[in-house]
Amino acid sequence: MALQPLTEGIRAGLTGKTFDGSLKFDCGDDGVIVLADGDASMKNRDTDCTIRISTENLKKLLTGKLNPMTGVMMGKLKISGDMGVAMKLGKLIS
């Protein structure tokens, strides 16, 4: 599954960091990655914030090749729910 390596990378990146709230990367037919309770999983659940994004753009976002604000303005990602949680993600991955 294409999202498994990304999920494991996010999980490793969360080590020693705190992330309040819950966030879901919705990659459509590829599945979801949920950040909640200090962990990353591929189990779908309700979250405070959802980011709809393609798997390819998620890879770019996580590696710093896609700026989150640029991605929103270009329609490469769509954010729904608690924007404050999305803003915390920016600090976490930068």
What does this structure look like?
This protein has a five-stranded mixed beta sheet with strand order 3-2-1-4-5. It is globular and about 30 Å long. The relative contact order is 0.21. The protein starts with a helix and ends with a helix. The longest helix is centred in the first third of the chain and has 12 residues, at 3-14. The chain has four helices and five strands; from the N terminus they run αββββααβα. 39% of the residues lie in helices and 23% in strands. It has 94 residues and is of the alpha+beta class.
How many DSSP helices?
4
How far from one another are the termini?
26 Å
Order of helices and strands: HEEEEHHEH
Helix content: 25-40%
Unreliably modeled segments: none
Described by strand count, sense and barrel closure, the largest sheet is:
5 strands, mixed
Morphology call: globular
Strands, count: 5
Major sheet: arrangement of strands: 3-2-1-4-5
Based on CA atoms alone, the radius of gyration comes out at 12 Å
SSE blueprint:
Elements: H1 3-14, E1 23-26, E2 32-36, E3 39-41, E4 49-53, H2 55-62, H3 68-73, E5 77-81, H4 83-93
Keyword list:
alpha+beta, 94 residues, 5 strands, 4 helices, 23% strand
